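Quick start: read one record
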Amino acid sequence: MAMYARLIGRVDDARTTALSLNDIGPVMEWYGALECYLGGAYYLRNAAAFRNAVTAHQHLVSWIVRRFDPVPGDLLTDLCLSLIHGPAPIRRMLVAAILTHGETIDDDDTSGLLARILAATSDLDQTLAIREANRLLHACLDRRYARQDTRILMAFAVTALRLNTADIARLPAGLTKMDAARRALVASELSRMRHGRSTAISATNLIDLPGAALAAIVKSRAARTARAQLPDTVFLDHQWMARAGWV
């Protein structure tokens, strides 16, 4: 965590380098490390560290959108944070940037697909959200992704479809399956580590930001009686994220 914490003070260096090269790459490299810090802080429930990472993201996002017109996948983390509890102007800016971006999103670009599904869901564009969620679901059924990733992505796609088709009764089960899929990934990789085997797990696997963003939308739209049925979760606890990330 200490190694990642030092990144916070280098935000201006990343921006200066990106400007000098006219390339978003240095900022996205910095973002990747920052997302590890975010995941580690969440897993340890370190509210101060989590808030620092959220603040660093918000410090750059408006500038990134104006300066570089990034692809939707590059905005996924910021979109998730804005849906969980971020300022409404940033959320609207990110949703618009993602939905109006001209590039086609391939099925292999899972970050881009997740960003489009969440942005369309936030924008109440059920037609687009359903279409993109079905694309993701069919790609999962066609085994386009690794097995553990498929479980997580399929659970997300199914829950997004339920939300956008107003299948309210089955939303709690969807959120539970999303959390269980993430738990299975983390548990299996940690078991590999304990037995001295190689693992591809990183701190970014310890938090499900897209799942948390979707869960936050579910709660905001559910009636009071339905909210009581929503499950407690480990990896997509948007309520803890909201309390920790913003003062």
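Residues 72-245 form one domain.
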